């Protein structure tokens, strides 16, 4: 009898332990990924009973995951499309946007490239194929290697809208699957040009001035830099106040959250 009671108690303890272990699943943008991962590390240090997982499958796939109920938070580097809202409504999902940071889209070249500035129109012409050699914009006599994000990316869609004016990128462009891959391709290719989130600029690549403005936290925040955007975390409805998901998607509103966003290289939406 005592063994039976002990067994029952142990089973109850195990059950309580399982219940206490909550999980927050995030999926989506590779641009928002570094923020999500840093927030996850911070959050789990504060809440040991919650496990946070972050996947980076692209903004479009993040939206699909939220709609299909396979994630709690969709990280997106663009707003949801009307078609995505419609698909969500059909499944009873109500996407709510949380702007967690601001971001610029620097145009990146190899550090050895002497070109330091382009106009928005010149960038568009390079990606249209109208400008195909660096000497046409004051650089060396080298054929331009055009690198773009994949078409499922929110970064691609932002670039398509803000730079390309929805005109089609030339057929010679190479497509890669992440911001990190853009940086890697540009840093290893002297004649390359690419674009990525502000947090992906380091000494291995050179960010160009666009229309005379260098991409930085300050110029993104003031709106001076012409290629800038908000970064989102979407939830199904506004999360219950005080719930783990609510605490997670409001980290950016805290002083610690602001510091995390700045340390990664993005622009916080709050200032303390």
Summarize the entry for a quick read:
This protein is an alpha/beta fold. Helix content is 37%, strand content 21%.
How would you characterize the overall build of this protein?
The chain has 272 residues and is of the alpha/beta class. It has two domains: 2-102 and 231-264, D-Maltodextrin-Binding Protein, domain 2; 106-222, D-Maltodextrin-Binding Protein, domain 2, CATH 3.40.190.10. Helix 2 (33-46) runs antiparallel to helix 10 (255-264). The protein contains ten helices and twelve strands. Residues 4-20 have low confidence and may be disordered. It has a five-stranded mixed beta sheet with strand order 2-1-3-12-4.
Largest sheet: 5 strands, mixed
Could you name the CATH homologous superfamily of the largest domain? Periplasmic binding protein-like II
What does the overall shape look like?
globular
CATH top level of the largest domain? Alpha Beta
CATH architecture of the largest domain: 3-Layer(aba) Sandwich
Give the percentage of residues in beta strands.
15-25%
State mean pLDDT (0 to 100 scale).
92
Secondary-structure element string? HEHEHEHEEEHEHEHEEEHEHH
Count the beta strands. 12
| Major sheet strand order | 2-1-3-12-4
* Fraction in helix: 25-40%
Distance between the termini: 62 Å
Give start-end ranges of low-pLDDT stretches: 4-20
Number of domains: 2
CATH fold call of the largest domain: D-Maltodextrin-Binding Protein, domain 2
Number of helices: 10
Assign the structural class, choosing from mainly alpha, mainly beta, alpha/beta, alpha+beta, or little secondary structure. alpha/beta
Radius of gyration: 22 Å
């Amino acid at each position: 009898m005592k063994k039976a009671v002990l067994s029952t108690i142990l089973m109850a303890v195990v059950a309580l332990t399982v219940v206490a272990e909550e999980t927050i699943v995030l999926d989506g943008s590779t641009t928002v990924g570094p923020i999500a991962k840093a927030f996850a590390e911070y959050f789990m240090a504060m809440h040991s009973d919650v496990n946070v997982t972050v996947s980076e499958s692209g903004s479009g796939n993040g939206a699909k995951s939220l709609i299909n109920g396979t994630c709690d938070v969709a990280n997106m580097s663009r707003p949801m499309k009307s078609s995505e809202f419609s698909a969500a409504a059909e499944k009873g999902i109500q996407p709510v946007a949380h702007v967690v940071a601001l971001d610029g889209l620097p145009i990146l070249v190899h550090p050895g490239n002497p070109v330091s500035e382009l106009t928005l129109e010149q960038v568009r012409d390079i990606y249209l194929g109208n400008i195909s050699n660096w000497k046409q914009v004051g650089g060396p006599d080298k054929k331009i290697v055009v690198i773009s994000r994949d078409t499922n990316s929110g970064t691609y869609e932002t670039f398509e809208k803000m730079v390309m004016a929805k005109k089609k990128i030339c057929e010679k462009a190479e497509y890669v699957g992440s911001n990190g891959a853009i940086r890697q391709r540009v840093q290893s290719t002297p004649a390359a040009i690419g674009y990525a989130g502000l947090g992906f600029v380091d000494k291995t690549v050179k960010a160009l001035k666009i229309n005379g403005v260098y991409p930085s936290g300050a110029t993104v925040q003031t709106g001076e830099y012409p290629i800038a955007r908000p970064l989102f975390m979407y939830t199904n409805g506004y999360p219950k106040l005080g719930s783990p998901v609510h605490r997670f998607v409001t980290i950016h509103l805290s002083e610690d959250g602001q510091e995390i966003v700045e340390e990664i290289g993005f622009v916080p939406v709050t200032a303390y």
